[in-house]
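so my prof wants the structure for this chain in the tokens format not the other one, which i didnt know existed until like an hour ago. anyway here's the sequence
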Amino acid sequence: METDPATDPEPYVRLATLRTLHRIIADLNAARSLAGTLQAVVEGAVMGLGFDSAVVNMVRPDGDLVVAAVWEISTEGEAEEGINSLLGQIGSRESWNRLLNVGDVWGSLVFVPHDRGWARPVDIPTWGGGPGYVIEGAWHPEDMLLAPMYSFGGELLGVLSVDRPRNGRRAGPWTREALEMFAQQAGIAIGNARLRAEMQRALIRLEREQQVLLASEESYRQAFEYAPSGMALTELHGEQRGRLTRVNDALCRLLGRSRSALHRQSFADLIHPEDSAKLRGIATENGRAEVRLARRDGGWFWVNLRNSVVSDATEGAMYLLTHVEDIEDRKRHELQLAHRASHDALTGLPNAAELKARLRLRLCDHPNSLLPAVAHRPGGLGAFSGFAGYGGSEDGEHGGFADHGGYGVALPDGGAGHAYGHPAAGEGSGYEHVHAVLPDEAGGTPQGGRALAVLFCDLNGFKGINDRHGHNAGDATLIEVARRLQHVVREGDTVARLGGDEFVVLADGVDRERAKDLADRLRVAVTPPIRWENRTLRVGVSIGIGWAGCGMTIDEVLHTADELMYVEKRARAAGGGRSHRRAG
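here's what i got, hopefully its the right format
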């Protein structure tokens, strides 16, 4: 029997549902963000398709799916936790593919009945649950109806999962068709939302690039002129290449120069010679460098230069925008910390670590095979006691280890050598290592290297000062001895304190005779009495002259010199403190 449309409400119910669905699809495309679109998808599935809950699982960049939006209509008296707890949970792409393949295919939909629960991957977020038995054709709490959502190009964007149909039955043909159409429209809306988001990001990037590229006088004038730190524009092309074409007041104050004076100069004119390479490294590109600039009074101060290349889409790089930050205080603090780490706190002399670092600069692992072998034995390296004049190289003929306040070590210059890999010079640095060699028995230095004397000094009588007068007197003695030792040596020599009352002097480029003369002068300098709080303090010094040679270890060098010092100390003790045997 035919149904009378005038009395059968079904066509009108479906028509109302279609109108609702049409409005929901319109809402999908009206969402202003991707998050809003996803929320409109789950709300539309619930409000327009007759389900009480819906979840959108979105594909992440790594391929896995994450719960990105949920919506449900809670039933009165429901005790279970809502599906909001699913947000953010992740299921692997592999598990989702397996789930989509195990269900019944309803067009573009996939229905996974409850009796196939054995095939459901455990890492896919699920919800619901209920009684284990329902009548045939009814919706089981563990049934799953999935609607994959694709882009125009067939890319899987996500999966819409619906649950708890309000009529209590599994979806019929009409509901399936409506859900398929809705999922298709949802995929289009999500794709459009992603495209809009990408376009918005691209527009933001384009706007930023345009702001940098245009860089008009009005757009950055106030930020440039009134910046608290120095700012400068440098031309990269034409006759004015490298010149400061624009500077702000802060930079003028920092450099102590007028705008007109700076416009005739470049940073290359102001840079410290030792920092020129750093400036060249960032002269035409983005980058930063800590360098020293010249003040008008002739002094130098540390700044941090940060370059940004301003480019044109057609002409390429046009000029550099340079930010100049005063870091003098920070740099001074860093240098002070470095000095403290490498120098003795009491005397200000280089400490044991710094002494070894300077020896490491001078020694390599490869002894010069052209030089005659010299046994590393106490008798062959020399010890001494006694007094004589020191004929030091005051004309500066030989280089040495210069003490620049602990901030660096001047490498030896002059003399023949071999380009071995040296710890002080990186590969390709152009530094030619001059071998440290042991002087021959005649006192001369074999050709192809330079002798490095290591004088190990140990004070005599220092313990008695500490015992009788206390540690303050001992400290005052050490400070005065350090001053006297420094006064004797050449500018390029190193005086270091190992600890306690032990000192080491490094004298580069001396022969045996000059090393003995230096030791005599050191002893003469230490012997005079020291005045402290109306008291007279006296100490002597025992000195062992060792020689450092490439191929020797630092510990070996210091140990040998230490042994030679004890040779002289025992000779003094045997002679009642008045025997000064010379050896070496």
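also thought this was worth mentioning. The chain has three domains: 10-73+84-129+138-197, 218-326, 342-574.
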